[in-house]
Automatic annotation (TrEMBL):
Pathway: Carbohydrate degradation; glycolysis; D-glyceraldehyde 3-phosphate and glycerone phosphate from D-glucose: step 4/4. The lineage of its organism: Bacteria, Bacillati, Bacillota, Clostridia, Peptostreptococcales. Gene3D superfamilies: Aldolase class I (3.20.20.70). This is Fructose-bisphosphate aldolase. Catalyzes the aldol condensation of dihydroxyacetone phosphate (DHAP or glycerone-phosphate) with glyceraldehyde 3-phosphate (G3P) to form fructose 1,6-bisphosphate (FBP) in gluconeogenesis and the reverse reaction in glycolysis. It comes from Caminicella sporogenes DSM 14501.
Length: 309
């Protein structure tokens, strides 16, 4: 039981053609729900912290909560920085004991992204920490992007090879049509699997990462809307697409939106049905339970990493 890097996890995931779930954490109930599910499923686990999470909960609280989760469950956990936007935040997290960091230089030019990623890789590797980088752009992608638009924003397979070789990065987040948040597709969901296969062929045995991979589980969207919410038209990546991706070199699947929706749906329902309750433990407890069930479902039925610890 310890904080570990994702090196071994990804090697096993690649060979076993499954993916490890990387779940975003922001408070105690979210962490507890996730680790309880991973423990029951005997699954490998990545807990990831965004800059926003660090701002909300404060770095020390999140670090100690993750340590407490490890102590309580006996799990091995990767503590990962999600979307580090500059060298300084990556350095802070490495100095803080994170075992993995993401440097997201995807908004910069290819050469600038390489230089920034290389700098983080050098600092991280000297300290036994692994690095994820990103090539290609995720945001604002719809299913009706045309071929030339795709070439501009989706990850270029040949560039991916050059990027990995020149930076020495440990894993790479790619853009094949997913996006962050609850509104991923206007029409039918579509991912560019041909591109993913090309990248995998050119980078054999190299772990790839899928961001923006929440399914936006319809039952949670419906519950949110039924109990006072207003999130019409929310749509995510269907489960069978995630299963397919995990057999094509995707070793890490990022999930945040589904955690938010599970928790919000459960709390909305509980408060609506129990208007007399004002004890936060009651409704936050419902949120935690919903997260645990959702994460168990992902581990067992989507990621395929039950009993792969
Ligand atoms: O990619 C993510 C975190 O980095 C989360 O994606 P979702 O918004 O699809 O959950
Ligand atoms: O990729 C983004 C994650 O969902 C984190 O979101 P956040 O920046 O609101 O914490
Ligand atoms: Zn990005
Ligand atoms: Zn992301």
């Amino acid at each position: 039981m310890a904080l570990v890097t994702s090196k071994e996890m990804f090697k096993k995931a690649y060979e076993g053609q499954y993916a490890v779930g990387a779940f975003n954490v922001n408070n105690m109930e979210i962490i507890q729900g996730i680790v309880e599910a991973a423990k029951e499923e005997n699954a490998p686990l990545i807990l990831q912290v965004s800059a926003g999470a660090r701002k909300y909960a404060k770095p020390a609280y999140l670090k100690k909560l993750v340590e407490a989760a490890i102590e309580d469950t006996g799990l091995d956990v990767v503590l990962h920085l999600d979307h580090g936007e500059n060298f300084e935040i990556c350095k802070q997290c490495i100095d803080d004991g994170f075992t993995s960091v993401m440097i997201d230089g995807s908004k910069y030019s290819f050469e600038e992204n390489i230089a920034l990623t290389k700098k983080v890789v050098e600092y991280a590797h000297e300290r036994g920490v692994v690095v994820e980088a990103e090539l290609g752009r995720l945001a604002g992608i719809e299913d009706n992007v045309n071929v030339s638009e795709k070439d501009a924003i989706y990850t270029d397979p040949n560039q991916a090879v050059e990027f990995v070789e020149r930076t020495g990065v440990d894993s790479l987040a790619i853009a094949i049509g997913t996006s962050h948040g609850a509104y991923k597709f206007k029409g039918e969901p579509k991912l560019d699997f041909e591109r993913l296969e090309k990248i995998t062929k050119l980078l054999p045995n190299f772990p790839l990462v899928l961001h923006g991979a929440s399914t936006v589980i319809p039952e949670f969207v419906e519950a949110c809307n039924k109990y006072g919410g207003n999130i019409p038209g929310a749509k995510g990546v269907p489960e069978d697409m995630l299963r397919r991706a995990s057999k094509l070199g995707i070793c890490k699947i990022n999930i945040d939106t589904d955690l938010r929706l599970a928790m919000t749906a459960a709390i909305r329902k509980y408060l609506t049905e129990n208007p007399e309750v004002f004890d936060p433990r009651k409704y936050l407890g419902e949120g935690r339970k919903a997260i645990k069930e959702m994460v168990r479902h992902k581990i067992k039925n989507v990621l395929g990493c039950s009993n792969k610890k």
